[in-house]
Amino acid sequence: MKVSDYIVEFLIKHNIRDVFGYPGGMVTHLMDSLDKYREHISVHLNYHEQACAMAACAWAEITGLPGVAYATSGPGATNLLTGIACAYFDSIPCIFITGQVNTYEQKKDMPVRQKGFQETDIVSMAKPITKTAYMVESVEDMPAALDKAYYTSLEGRPGPVLLDVPMNIFRGNIDERFLPDTSQTISSKITEGTDMEPTVSEILCELQAAHSPVILAGHGIALSKTIGVFRKFVDQTGIPTVTSMTGVDVLQTENLYTYGMIGAYGSRWANYILDHSDCILTLGSRLDCRQTGVDKALFAPRAQILRVDIDADEMENRINKKERHYCISLEELMPALAEKASGFDWDFHLWNRCCKAIREELELADQPQPGNQIIRQVSSLLPEGVIVTTDVGQNQVWVAQSWDVKKEQRILFSGGHGAMGYGLPAAIGAAIAVKRPVICVAGDGGFQMNIQELQTVMRERIPIKIILLNNHTLGMIHHFQEIYFQSNFVQTQGDRGFTVPNFKAIARAYGMRVIDNPALEILPPILLDMDPAFIEIPLPQNTYIFPKLGLNKPIHEQEPTVRPEISRKVKAVYDAFLNENRSHKWSH
């Protein structure tokens, strides 16, 4: 069997029915083999390799299988790197296949920069942002290499793998009679063979004994496919729950115990509640500095922190000396927690009443920004189950702050890497995975990073609804410049180096349906039909994200500063809870 045929058969065998790529000389054999099996696997040709990688990320997030993207050697391979980094930092399983020059054309140990045309050491470049990256150097190595790539991407903390395949390996032949048995069993269970009971009991007892516990829910819940059991656990215990930005979709907005997103751009009340808790259970959230603030000593100083993470290395970033670590997969832990929690007596009605009162007071501190209002209105028009992708910038934060999360809804971000240009290719990958409409929220800056992917959308008639929030500037940088650089809007404003095109004309040039002057009452059928659509919504140039974290301040002291009378009311609410809760606990 030809090696490139073997690769395609391997993908089909593992239920991967979609791949993303861009043609190139060193992957022509793979392209030909994919076409040979076109009844069983579909190739989605993007127009930039970065978009291929990002589409594969979103496809993987929705299906739970490794996303697959390929590119040729040299610039094709290096163009994948931004998307590979997105997969690595957001723990998304992906297999990236790059073509390489023939083994006999490679410089190997020669002290030259390059021997073969477009020869580039992509393996060395990709190693820091992959779980593993290696070149397949012989035909005989391919079966084991491909098998290892698949299982490595999924095992433990998921992430990307890169296989660099020379052209003469692609066109080589494997004798099927001598294929090794390389099948493996995926195991994400860090504690396999150990007793879960002590861990589960310890976590539950700490939570029950607390006066003001909080659950911090992260992206790891979605990655581990435990959203359903996590929601059951929250409802069982009644513990107030906050989320990271990438975890905003793990709990519906209407849930009685959800209090929104924390962090630099999080809700004031979510940050305040977290800061005043006495026990924090973090589930699949790495507690980075955007969540804790720069000075970690100011983060939730009253709280006993219980950290659950599949990656032991994340625990090296300690928040305080007394925190407890549980290196275990949520896939394993959440069902055990939910099962044993049913045997406990949970009563946090006073703490929830306090949290709700704090939210009501702090909601008065900030005027909703136009972007928040638009996002809230658009989300109200959509039913359950609609997937949303965002770009990076103000649009991303407005979605995280204001989207009304419904049941069975996913919101996909470029979280750790924060790559502008992510929204449109991610929408392509997600829509191909679910075969139904996907909403892509973008800004005028990030949208131009991968605007060429409108051709992909129209060629395949992918039902993506693009909502472009256009304020004619790079909004977050523009705001920084206003605060820290005396409003010197260099490179972010039209007369200082940043301009935008006529997006509607561009969309029409690609053949896309453009909705002029969109009114809310006409949008629902457009957002839910199977035709692509482009909707541009103008915003004032001076648009802002509020609240935001101030420099070197604790996360609950965001800018702009809360009016003194509101601060006094919030403190009075919390003090009243402390007094009432002491009496309640003593009586029991």
Named CATH architecture of the largest domain = 3-Layer(aba) Sandwich
Q: Say which CATH homologous superfamily of the largest domain is assigned.
A: TPP-binding domain
Which fold does the CATH topology of the largest domain refer to?
Answer: Rossmann fold
Class by SSE composition: alpha/beta
Please tally the β strands and state the result.
Answer: 20
Straight-line N-to-C gap: 73 Å
* Cα-atom radius of gyration: 25 Å
Shape: globular
Determine the number of helices (DSSP H or I, runs of at least 4 residues): 23
The parts where pLDDT drops under 50 for at least 5 residues are: none
Q: Which class of the largest domain in CATH terms?
A: Alpha Beta
Overall structural domain count:
3
Percent of residues in helical segments?
25-40%
Strand order of the largest sheet: 2-1-3-4-6-5
